[in-house]
Amino acid sequence: MQDIINSDNQIPKENIDIFQIDDQKSNCLLFQKILDNNYFQSIITILTLYALFGDDIRILAFGPNADIGFDIITLIGLIFFFIEFFFSVFAKQGYKFSFFFWLDLISIVSLILDIQLINIFLFSLQTTNAASLARAGRASRVGSRAGRVVRLVRLIRIVKLYKATQEKKEENQGESVLDQKKRKIKQKYLEFDQNKKNEQNQEKQSLQKNEKNQKIKNQQKLDQQIYIINQQLNKNSIIQVLQENNQNKESRVSKRLSDLITKRVIIIVLILLFTMPLFQADYFFDLPTVQDYGLSQIEMVCYKKESTHNDIKLTFEKTIEQMKKLETPIIYFTSPFQFIETFQDSVVNTLRDSEKSPFALSLDVEKYKQAHPNDLETYLHLKALDQDQLQFSTFLNQQDQTFFASALSLGRTVFVCIVLTFAALLFSKDANDLALRPIERMINKVNQIAKNPISAKEQDLIDASEDQYETSIIENAIIKIGTLLALGFGEAGSEIIGSNMANLGDINPMIAGKKKCAIYGFCDIRNFTDATEVLQEDVMIFVNNIGEVVHQMVDRYLGAANKNIGDAFLLVWKLPQNKYSISKDNQISFKDTELINMYSDFSLISFMKIHAKLNREPKLLAYRQDKRLSQRMKDYKIKIGFGLHIGWSIEGAIGSEFKIDASYLSPNVGMASRLEGATKNYGVSILISSQLYDQISASLQKLLRQVDFVTIKGWAKPIGFYTIDMNIKDIPQSKGLDSNLSEQEKKKIDKSKKQTVLEFVKQRCFHAETYIRKNKDLRLLLRDFNMDFLKKYNQAFKLYIQGDWKQSKQIFDEILKTNESDGPTKATLEFMEKNNFVIPEGWEGHKPYID
Hints:
With 851 residues, the chain is an alpha+beta fold. 59% of the residues lie in helices and 11% in strands.
């Protein structure tokens, strides 16, 4: 029972995650285990909260005597934070020297400022000199301000702790659900076994001894089958839990985007916190204080006993002289005394109210009387004044500071705009790079596949890397799916793919067929049955090696593979739809003869290239040395028969909603197959129908010879059979491509060769004879081509058609003396011999063809 439950825990193929969203494995499992420990996390959380608020609580709620206790707690926090930092460096992948590495380091170092002994030592507060004390006070304020700002960095620890807690919670939830499922399944099986045991015990008591054993055995078999079924059903429930748990994992894109946004926000906030004080005027100079206004000195003189008017006046004048020397000089000063004249600078009326720094101090009349009981005149004068008139009023000139503050304010506004713009661009860039642009590329790829499904094969995959995101994987998946669709459906199925992708409704693979005009090629591997029996499992590699050459050459010369039927291949060159018209009686009229000539030449040249490659490529020549094939078939060589024909067909889907094949239906397709089959009768590698011969260019036609002229059942008109003589005897082996080239580089080379053919079509500059002379494979195939032999054969065949069999036989006999293995000559002589070299009655130059 336990073994079965343990086996259920294995993740089957159904749970494979192509995105591989797995947690990164720790470099040090021990350190990782400590970091993930709940108790350790709790201590770190408490110390983090203390690091944020402890120093402020110390000042608010405790006296100086408690500082040493807080220093000890801070020191403990430093130790724990350093331990966590040290463990993280070794346990977490990608943490070392990362953004959060430096933030954690800064936050740990910032705690040092919270230790009062170190703070006192750094800023030297134990000074006796007043100037030194003032400087130290300012340094202490700067240190405190820096400490408070740097302490904000520690807030990131709260974010990190929250994320870690959430991940731990989700993991525990997934594990608890899975454990519950396991317990339920285990309990169910235990109850199942116990019930069966009870039933068996009851049966033992009621059954006879000779029947009991047999029935128990049968019941055990039944129980085992039920057990296995239930096991599989419950196994699926565990798999479902695992899958649901896997679906909840954060994707790489989400994680990366979240990290980038967090980093951007932290950096922007820190930049603002550190730079915004630079845009405050009080950062560069101290604002005027009460002492700066000098009113306290006058107040002291006014309330001093036995001070005279002259003393007050002299103090007033000295104060004005001192205040003129300030960074914010005095521009206006008035008093309630009638014996003191109001001071007013000439610039006072030229300044804005915002450029004047006002200050006022009220005079206490009764207090003045107590200090000056004999100055009754002044007392009465003051007593008659209202409250506003009883004030020492002063204005300082703050024009320079106001100008500077305005400039700083302008700079602050510009800086904030720049930061916000920069931040918006960064956030937009992250979203664009990680999500939006990949989605747009996916949309473009899907649209491209919908417009031209075959183009999926031409699209390049995104280079895989360790940090490949899900969006890149999905992009590659779209290309792969499109490529597989193009490979599976072929060019004939492009309409099915395109129409269904463009349609927002349900899938409808059974769309109506369309009449097309195309060139059909059929290839058949000779002795395939023997090869299959000999090679067994290796026959797939054998066929695919041949198929690779066939498909590659056909694709290079603008054709497409349509069907792979074990030992045979159906190839199609679909002609551009605007270059021909098909009448109701299926007669084809070509509008662009030059283009049709090129496509016809390409179809024949591609088959000639295949014939050469099969006898030159090292990978295929190796089968000549295969002992298994040699023992079955002496001097084994890969041989293929080819048939080529042109005509109309219906392109569409064949099958049902369960399985469809995109193909072509027409007698013309069957004709290509029939031509291939006829190659055996004539001892040639390739046969071309007269319909296609008529469309081949003149420069290539002169290399072909007619081997027969026959009537075929179901065809209204006789059809001519043509071939081209190719010599593969002692043809040299191909060097092939550099073995160090990658598959991608090989594809690029093949793509460039296809592009050359496309340029021929685009520029309308293809000449078959010239191309054959420049192409090594074709040149080697035709290296022994004898034009005199061709002329002599054509003469004999023409006499045969015309009915002069006597003269024709003489020439054919002469041909066999020099080329005794010529299959077409033998086939023609054999037919004439059957008729005793006498023309059949009603001879019209053609004979009935028998498969």
